[in-house]
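Form 12-C: Joint structure prediction
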Amino acid sequence: MTTARETEIMDFAEREMRKGGLDAFSFRDVAAAIGIKSASVHYHFPTKADLVQRVITRYADRFVGSLGAADAADETPHDRVARLADAYTGAYRQEGCSCLCTVLGSVVTYIPDGSPDKVRDFYNRLSQWLTTALEGKSTDLTPELVISILQGAMTLSVAVDRDAPIMDAKRYLLSVL
Amino acid sequence: MTTARETEIMDFAEREMRKGGLDAFSFRDVAAAIGIKSASVHYHFPTKADLVQRVITRYADRFVGSLGAADAADETPHDRVARLADAYTGAYRQEGCSCLCTVLGSVVTYIPDGSPDKVRDFYNRLSQWLTTALEGKSTDLTPELVISILQGAMTLSVAVDRDAPIMDAKRYLLSVL
DNA sequence: CGTTGTCTATCTTGTGATAGGTAGATACGT
DNA sequence: ACGTATCTACCTATCACAAGATAGACAACG
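Section 2 - Result
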């Protein structure tokens, strides 16, 4: 069960984590943002590790879920990759921030407790989706390379504050797949 | 002028930043690692922002410098990209950690003072090198996409703790360039 | 009455940063 | 050569603050 309050907390935490990583927010920040006290945040999420793990898991569910079926018969691999690319470009355009797991992935050895496993789960699920999505398509690109291109371009776009890299990545993928 | 002590400090700071970002180390960590007191670290680098900026600049100089000439007449674009890819795979194999600016790039809006500009300088210099390096080569890949692929794969390799993504990225780039 | 969600108040730890002092080296004027 | 001044690189001690976390009380609801 996830209450409305917990959703509020996770929404804020996710937004901050995607912009600045684990240390970009504190329990006090969360509390101030939604109008309660930090002790109350601890009531819903005993430790920060708990909060981070739940945010990652929710993110993974939502992201992979939003991609839809990877094996719909009336679609081509091209269609499916287009949807994946749109998920990335959309996130950049609307929120100006990265994939949560890209931010956390590069510092995976420094995040607490079970979080690294949650990040790896995300990538495993995404790889699996792409493996199915590309089935039957002959290409030099592995599923993980498709992910790499999109995420690398996303990071670069954020870093240089221009959408060219992520838009070029999408265009390139759609031209070769 | 950079003294031996400052080099020691920056070496440690860079190593930690590449593994865990800005908040992965403190002045006390630095001091303990090299056997002095934190106040002495402040003597060499008045603020953390100072230290971070110098580390990024030094990293950029070293990384781009290590790539060598982008316009040597006896080389092909393929040769040059191979060298760039080796810089990434080498970093992963030897240090198991990412490009410094990949780690910082995704959180660029949360790092202090002049640091974002230093990160962007790095990418500008790398793009410029690649633009020259690819001159005359007909390809759909932009210089920034080449960077994206390598860095995205690097991040993924770190995240999932397998070298497959970064090795595949190198292989792919050399097959299409 | 028990549960739920919040509060106040507080603890401990770790952080970046500063003030002020000290030993040793170097430079300079007489 | 001698005394003075300055500089370098470190030290001790401490500050103010923000972090995660906990204990215990309170009100509302069933």
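Section 3 - Comments
Chain B is about 70% helix and 0% strand. Chain B touches chain A through 47 residues (CB under 8 Å).
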